[in-house]
Amino acid sequence: MVLLTPLFIVLGLWQLDRADQKRSLAHNLEQRRKLPALVLSGTIPAAAQLEYRSVIAEGRLLADKTVLIENRKYQGKIGFHVITPLQLKDSKQIVLVNQGWISREQAADVAGIREPEAELRIHGQATIPQPPALALSLPPESAQALPHWPFLTLEHFSAWSGLQVLPFMILQAPEDASGFVRQWPEPQVNVGMHIGYAVQWFAFALIALLIWLRLSFHKTTEQSVC
Questions:
Q1: CA–CA separation, 132 vs 149, rounded Å?
Q2: Alpha-carbon distance 163 to 131, whole Å?
Q3: SS3 breakdown of the chain: % helix, strand, coil, rounded to 5?
Q4: CA-CA distance, 194 to 103, in Å (whole number)?
Q5: Nearest of 175, 174, 146, 180 to residue 160 by alpha carbon
Q6: pTM above 0.90?
Q7: Are the beta carbons of 158 and 164 closer than 8 angstroms?
Q8: 3-state secondary structure (DSSP) of residue 72
Q9: Fewer Cβ close by (within 10 Å): the C or N end of the chain?
């Protein structure tokens, strides 16, 4: 009881603190999404301050450094997300752009998915790509016209391409004209999950205390009988 009850209480309080952090994050994200679109030029804010904010980027797509992210679904069909770096106008800075979803059939037509290298104006939302929770190492490169990767990390892309990219990616807006499908999921901040975990930990602390009281009462009763 001396060990378990305080431990369970501390874990419950930790989950309540996590819930407060998620509430603060949800509020900050909502406020950030209401801000006007930020034009990416000159000094660019830190990635953590940009995440989920609307951004505008002008520049030239480096189509020869395009990669395809595998096993992305749209309406039950398996396809790819097309990731292409964009060199910002009048700058050497490079940002990755997720241009959207294409089918397997479209991926076979390499020329059909590559944008012209003219200057473009791209609208979208900043995001920070994360690997899956259980990420195996990326497979070796094949002879495919475009690399097929199971997931994207900025570090791996930089190492593969030799390009220093900004520490975030743009999810291109559906309004931008192209042949890509763009239906990005809304970010969800789950506060209820942490509240539920906190209740469970506090319940475990109460159970541990009740068991100790029960055993102590039973022991005292036996001693009285003796």
A1: 13
A2: 19
A3: 40, 25, 35
A4: 38
A5: 146
A6: no
A7: yes
A8: strand
A9: C
Return the closest-CA partner of residue 86 out of 125, 128, 118: 118
Residue 157 corresponds to which tokens in the numbers above?
């892309």
Per-residue tokens: 190: 């789950």
173: left (phi over 0), alpha (psi -120 to 50) or beta: beta
| Distance between CA atoms of residues 4 and 13, nearest Å | 14
- Give the Cα separation of 97 and 122 in Å (integer): 9
pLDDT per residue as tens digits for the range 144-180: 568 889 999 999 999 999 999 999 999 999 988 777 8
